[in-house]
Amino acid sequence: MESACRTCKLIIAQGNICPLCGSSNLTTKWSGHVMVLNVEKSEVARKLGIKVNGTYAININD
Length: 62
Ligand SMILES: [Zn+2]
Known about the structure:
The protein has one helix and five strands, in the order ββββαβ. By secondary structure, the protein is mostly beta strands. The chain has one domain (3-60): Rubrerythrin, domain 2 (Single Sheet), CATH 2.20.28.90. It has a three-stranded antiparallel β-sheet with strand order 2-1-3, with no helix packed on it. Strands 4-5 form a two-stranded antiparallel sheet. A hairpin with a 5-residue loop joins β1 (3-5) and β2. The relative contact order is 0.30. The site of zinc ion has 8 residues, from loops.
């Protein structure tokens, strides 16, 4: 199961540290995800406060 960062919600396939924000506060209890390919044009990215392209969890469940 992939982890998601509790701080920025980035989904992380490998490792224990978020490559985006450097947090080690990860969880596998997330649901839903959104892939942001063009953060400047993405309505979803704006709503979620995403500033860097990537795949993000929509909900952190714990
Ligand atoms: Zn992060």
